[in-house]
What we know:
This protein is mostly beta strands. The protein has one domain: Hypothetical Protein Pfu-838710-001 (Beta Barrel).
Amino acid sequence: MEIERKYLLSSPPPGYDSHPYHEIEQAYLCTEPVVRIRREDDSCYLTYKSKGLLAREEYNLPLTQEAYDHLLPKADGMVLTKRRYRIPLEGTALTVELDVFSGAYEGLLLAEVEFETKEEAQRFQPPSWLGTDVTFSGEYQNSRLALRPQL
């Protein structure tokens, strides 16, 4: 089960680029249900996600680079590219995953915070730099971004 809150940032927090990051490329074979392929650094995955905004089922299966390359041309919409920074939230055991998009969504900044329970997610008080909570709009789900023209 994936339980997360999502935020739209107008600017990145100071020092964000000093944190570890992953280079990500992902595309969608289907959006209802979500079936995604992703290359993260040198690893590739196929992911299934059920419907939902705050919480949903998520399953990841490893793919070879050859399988990823075979599936990529079959994707719907555009391929999303981003750099994901992992920023620890001071005073907590939580980590912010800050996505800095490139390509068609150059400059878009989205952050996600994952939780163990729905109650923990609902009680979460974000620091002000996290910006606007877009968890329940669904507008900024990557599967939706891939299917529409840039914002």
